[in-house]
Design brief:
This protein is of the alpha+beta class. 48% of the residues lie in helices and 7% in strands. The chain has 2 domains: 262 residues, 2-methylcitrate dehydratase PrpD, CATH 1.10.4100; 123 residues, 2-Layer Sandwich (60s Ribosomal Protein L30, Chain: A). The radius of gyration is 21 Å and the shape is globular.
């Protein structure tokens, strides 16, 4: 594995480009390869179910409105082919369509939707091998994880979403690697990607399905950045640490040194978290804590007086700000609504968040309004996902539970069989059982594929 030393005279973009262009499949440890393949399978599952959802259809209609004559890359479900960046735009939007796409543990964002749809789209165009595909995905995860770690949580405090600001860089690296850009070309791709970096968090205050598209915009912008670099367009080499670069414009406080620390010696894709609930990441441990209590005690909605929930301070605005949803996105971004579902319905399945009747259900809204979130001083640093829940009942009892880490995360991992079952449940909305059972072993043996299009051709409904 190539090791990259931090040299003050060299820019961060240059060192990231050197790392990404040098990384090879043979550099990847077995556990990293296996983890990457699980993430690929998971992303395909969420793309498939995402392709069926009403609020993701506008991006597909946009592409259909002005179809490309180039038939490069497959759009999931419909099977239509279009230019690679448009296919990635649609598929990545599908991938963030239901809040079940993976997270980077440590709040580095949804890296899977910024990398995997890009690798499939560009890989299909270039007829890349499975090994090239896997190395590109790992490089993209590494770059975005490091960038977002440098600005977290201050980017969110300022109102920027991780996917929107970090995603274009990851996508550019993935696309650039599959396009075999030189080190210089990759630097330019990263510099150009900075022009696509944006994304407001205002949807977590009042709703709006536009959040689903942030991943698509990042994927498309990253591919276009790499292609423009391939054609000779240049970008600022100081795009990360410069006076008007990533670290300064998106956060009041940042730590650029974290971006290069141990670069080439670690694989932060190991920090990926495969989500088990279709809700914003900041509420998962609270849901799990309430689930523990409702399974242990027969709590009824009319017995609840108050629900105190201690979470990380930065999560108070990103998850605890909405009490009564107005659309699916605001339902999934509501701590109160998620906890109310668990108490009233004993479940947090996707169809519950999608049911408009529940957004105004008086029993659920009353429960939601009884949730009082506060900043837990213990929910910081490595334990920022911690949730401390106290349910106060009419008979004077207080039910208490603490969850440190969400299910599916590195410190509370889900089994391969659980993840395969998640994929089956999501994929069956589009594919037949036979198609599903053929896809799973194909992803498990990705490194054996000589052309990634052999897999993408299977991601469509059989009529």
């Amino acid at each position: 594995m190539t090791r990259v030393a931090s040299v003050p005279s060299e820019t961060i973009a240059l060192q990231l480009a050197r790392y990404a262009t040098a990384l090879k499949y043979d550099d990847l440890p077995l556990d990293v390869i296996n983890r990457t393949k699980l993430l690929v399978l998971d992303q395909l599952g969420v793309e498939l179910v995402g392709s069926t959802l009403e609020w993701t259809q506008p991006v597909l209609k946009l592409i259909e409105y002005a179809p490309s004559s180039k038939q490069e890359s497959t759009i999931v479900n419909c099977g239509r082919k279009t230019v690679a960046w448009d296919a990635a735009f649609v598929n990545a939007t599908f991938g963030q369509g239901c809040e079940l796409d993976d997270m980077a543990f440590g709040s580095a964002g949804h890296i899977g939707t910024a990398t995997i749809p890009v690798a499939f789209a560009v890989g299909e165009r270039e007829h890349s091998s499975g090994r090239q595909f896997l190395a590109a995905v790992v490089a993209g995860y590494e770059v975005m994880y490091r960038l977002m770690t440098a600005v977290h949580p201050h980017h969110a405090v300022r109102g920027f979403q991780s996917q929107g600001i970090g995603g274009p860089y990851a996508a550019a690296v993935v696309a650039g690697k599959i396009l075999s850009l030189s080190e210089c070309g990759m630097v330019n791709a990263i510099g150009i990607a900075g022009c696509h970096s944006a994304g407001s968090l205002e949807y977590d205050q009042s709703g709006g399905e536009v959040k689903r598209m942030h991943a698509g915009l990042a994927a498309r912008g990253g591919i276009q950045s790499a292609v423009l670099a391939q054609y000779g367009l240049t970008g600022p080499e100081t795009i990360i640490e410069g006076k008007r670069g990533f670290c300064h414009i998106f956060a009041d406080k940042s730590n650029p040194d974290l971006i290069l620390r141990n670069l080439g010696q670690t694989f932060n894709i190991r920090n990926s978290w495969i989500k088990m609930y279709p809700a914003i990441a900041t509420v998962h441990t609270a849901i799990a804590a309430v689930s523990e209590l409702t399974h242990k005690y027969p709590v009824q909605p009319d017995e609840v007086v108050e629900i105190d929930v201690g979470i990380a301070e930065h999560s108070l605005l990103h998850g605890a700000a909405i009490y009564q949803p107005t659309d699916v996105a605001s339902a999934q971004f509501s701590l109160g609504f998620s906890i109310a579902l668990q108490i009233a319905k004993r479940a947090n399945d996707l169809h519950l968040y999608m049911d408009p009747k529940l957004w105004t259900d008086q029993e659920i809204i009353r429960l939601s309004q009884k949730v009082k979130a506060y900043a837990d001083p213990e929910a910081e640093g490595p334990k920022r996902t911690r949730a401390c829940v106290d349910i106060k009942l009419t008979d004077g009892r207080i039910l208490h539970a603490v969850q440190e880490y969400p299910r599916g995360s590195p410190k509370n991992p889900a089994s391969d069989e659980e993840l395969h079952q998640k994929f089956r449940t999501l994929a069956e909305t589009v594919l037949t059982e036979q198609q599903i059972e053929e896809l799973i072993p194909m992803v498990e043996k990705l490194e054996e594929l000589d052309d990634i299009s052999r897999l993408t051709s299977r991601l469509r409904r059989k009529f």
